[in-house]
Design brief:
Length: 318
């Protein structure tokens, strides 16, 4: 049994190591476009324990838990929905020396933060010998890079048949890693061009060289990137120099999400900019925000996932 467990651990470790090796893959234009939607193929492996309640079984010498190893692959249609297939090897569980399980199913991801995902999955399970059952699972994952993910999870198998007379529910707990193909190593930064003209501000000798700032955001995100921070630093300096200046923060989204999600993302983008300015010492009475979502696009020619529309426009006035 110890030899079998050792072989199982070595196989899973080899799969995890081979997927990690792709982390240095060169980012291409195609991979940047893929990352925008989150679509792509992935592979993974995990190690854990499968547990059963042996009080349900009519046999002696019952093993209530067994070491488990799994390899899996799948395709994500976008950042939230995908399909998967997996093979599980369970060592010495119940009345059996080992059990082989094959699963196909669907997976839904919920992005809690930029780095942390919560997932749920359902699937149909084929058991060695021709029996079948169903499963439901939950996972919590951390994104090391856009390509590499590690996490923990729990799977529930209903009425797992061990032999002709014995069946019971099973519970799998595990740790694993996965690799998604075609993802960039870093989030792409989209630069935009803003209109610059001189307007008089505060006194007769001083002029402000910019009356508007446009900051873009990654799809579905409200995190201020390096370019946005440079713009806001310049804006704070100008507002400190000209105390009569006020700003209107207009937040937008592209049209890829539904109205409820777009409104939420738009409001968070406006709040991110407002919070940045207040933390930098700007009085809140000088800041007005509006959440436009995708109701008033900046351009009538913008595409469905236009980077221009995933933006916050900051307009200056006296």
């Amino acid at each position: 049994m110890k030899t079998t467990k050792l072989k199982l651990a070595l196989v899973a470790a080899a799969v995890i190591s081979s997927t990690s090796a792709f982390a240095t893959e060169t980012t291409s234009e195609q991979s940047l476009n893929t990352h925008t939607t989150g679509a792509g193929f992935w592979v993974g492996a995990d190690l854990g324990q499968t547990l059963i309640d042996n009080s349900d079984l009519r046999a002696s010498n019952i093993n209530s838990h067994g070491a488990t190893g799994s390899v899996s692959a799948g395709y994500d249609f976008n950042k939230n929905v995908g399909l998967f297939a997996s093979y599980d090897y369970v060592d010495a569980l119940g009345t059996k020396e080992n059990i082989d399980l094959g699963t196909v199913g669907a997976k839904i991801n919920f992005h809690l933060t930029e780095k942390v995902d919560l997932s749920t999955s359902v699937g149909a399970v084929l058991i060695e010998g021709g029996d079948h059952t169903g499963m439901v699972g939950f996972g919590l994952a951390y994104n090391i890079t856009p390509s590499i993910q590690t996490g923990i999870g729990y799977n529930y198998y209903q009425d797992l048949h061990l032999d002709a007379e014995n069946s019971t529910d099973a519970h799998k707990i595990y740790w694993g890693m996965s690799y998604k193909f075609g993802q960039p190593d870093v989030q792409p930064i989209v630069k935009t061009v803003t209109t610059v003209r001189e307007i008089p501000v505060v006194d007769e000798t001083a002029v402000l060289t910019r009356n508007q700032y446009t900051m873009t955001f990654a799809s579905g995100k409200a995190v201020i990137d390096e370019i946005g921070a440079i713009y806001l630093t310049e804006l704070v300096n100008n507002m400190n120099k000209y105390p009569d200046l006020k700003v209107l923060v207009s937040a937008r989204t592209d049209s890829t999400g539904n109205d409820k999600i777009n409104e939420l993302v738009s409001r968070k983008r406006a709040q991110s900019v407002e919070t940045y300015l207040i933390m930098a010492g700007i009085d809140s009475s000088r800041i007005t925000t509006e959440s436009l979502a995708n109701t008033k696009p900046l351009s009538t020619h913008s595409g469905r996932s236009s980077a221009l529309e995933r933006s916050v426009v900051i307009s200056l006035s006296k």
